[in-house]
Amino acid sequence: MKSSPEPIRFSQPLRDVRPGRCAAPSRDWEGEVRSAFERGRQEGERMLAEQLLQQRNETRQVFEGVIASLQKSIHQVTHDSEQQLVALALEIARKLIGDIPISTEMVEASVREAISQVEDATELHVRLHPVDLELLHKSDSSLLKAPTDGTTVRFHSSSEVSRGGCLVQTRFGVLDARRETRFDLLKNSVLA
User: Fold this and answer.
1) Among residues 11, 38, 72, 141, which one has the fewest Cβ atoms lying within 10 Å of its Cβ?
2) Which CATH architecture has domain 101-191?
């Protein structure tokens, strides 16, 4: 709480004092107010410029992060799409091959290809699907005749062999030329 000002006491009564105008203040209050206003305005502009610069930097960092994330995503999406397209193409090929009717020529080509991969064998046992073996007998296939190179080839019916393929057994092992095995080899080589 402010105390009231103390009265001014004069030693003698005042004479010839007339009320009049106050003298102009010695300080330039208007100039000081304008100067303070201008300083405040400049300080506000400076602070606003700093805030805008900070926000611009933060926005740029967010933008760069989004761009980097999108670039990684694009690479991943491209890779995933390639894998899916290859898988789709292989599935379509498998279904198309599965829908092709089995002919004598197809069985003969499969057996010839399998036999050509066998080296140094004097006795071969070729296992075919029962229907495919019957197809070769009905068409009197040249494969069923004895080869002229001294190799013995015996044909056997086997339900473990799918249509259109064969298993060739030698004294060294078995060559798997079934359609599904060849398709799996193709699939693995494409996806590798």
Assistant:
1) 11
2) 2-Layer Sandwich (3.30)
pTM, to two decimals: 0.54
pLDDT tens for residues 103-160? Answer: 889 899 999 998 888 877 788 899 999 999 999 999 998 888 877 677 788 999 999 9
Domain boundaries, the chain: 32-100, 101-191
- For 23, list phi and psi in degrees, rounded to 5: -70, 150
Instruction: Give yes or no for a contact between 157 and 141, defined as CB atoms under 8 angstroms apart.
Output: no
Q: How far is 4 from 109, CA to CA, in rounded Å? A: 124
Report how far residue 186's alpha carbon sits from residue 192's, in angstroms, rounded to the nearest whole number: 10
Q: What angle do CA 137, 140, 141 make, to 5 degrees?
A: 95
Task: Kindly list the distances between the CA atom of residue 33 and the CA atoms of 20, 28, 41, 47, in Å, as whole numbers in the listed order.
Answer: 27, 9, 12, 21
Enter the DSSP assignment of 139.
Answer: T
